[in-house]
Structures are given as structure tokens and as C-alpha cells.
Write a structure and sequence with these properties.
This protein is mainly α and 96 residues long. The chain has one domain. The chain is 78% helix and 0% strand. It contains five helices and no strands. It has helices spanning 2-9, 14-26, 31-43, 45-70, 81-95. It is rod-shaped and about 80 Å long. The relative contact order is 0.08.
Length: 96
């Protein structure tokens, strides 16, 4: 029984696994942390779900920011003269 207790002592909690996963997305982990993460993944269904969600979120953010840089929002905040005239005409019609 004592051997099993030592074996499980090496396993990490879900909270630590989530922290390591976050680190793993940004950079490679040292082999010891990577092995602990893999061991946790082997026994924890919730971790596998969490991992797929975090990876999907990261992918969505990368695509979103990529789209922003490819198609930046216009910084021109003034209306065109055509738009101004349309607004003036609409206001006059409502005033009458």
C-alpha cells in the first residue's frame, strides 16, 4: 500500500496541470513537467477536454488577431460628405 501512495504522490493536480498546459502552449516544457502532464492526461478525462478547449481558444484568438492586422479598422472617424448630406436630408424630413 505504501508503494501506491508514493506512486500517486508524483501525480499533479488538475490546477497544476492547467498551469502547465498554459505554459506548454507558449513554450516547450522541461521533460519532467512534460511527463507529469502526460501522466495526468492519461488518467484525467477533464484535463483532455480542457486541453482541447484551450487549444481551440488559442487558435481562435490567433485567427482573430491575424484578421485584425490584415484588415485594420479604419482610423478615419469623419463622415463622408455624401453621408453628411443624407443625414441632413433625413433630419429636414423629420422636422417638417
Amino acid at each position: 500500500m505504501g508503494d501506491n501512495k508514493n506512486k500517486y504522490k508524483e501525480l499533479i493536480s488538475c490546477r497544476i496541470a492547467a498551469q502547465l498546459l498554459s505554459e506548454k502552449i507558449d513554450h516547450s516544457l522541461p521533460i519532467t513537467k512534460e511527463l507529469k502532464l502526460k501522466a495526468h492526461m492519461a488518467i484525467c478525462k477533464t484535463y483532455r477536454l480542457c486541453e482541447s478547449q484551450i487549444i481551440a481558444l488559442r487558435k481562435a484568438f490567433v485567427q482573430y488577431f491575424s484578421a485584425l492586422t490584415q484588415h485594420p479598422v479604419s482610423q478615419n472617424k469623419s463622415l463622408t460628405s455624401t453621408a453628411k448630406e443624407r443625414i441632413k436630408k433625413a433630419i429636414r424630413r423629420k422636422a417638417v
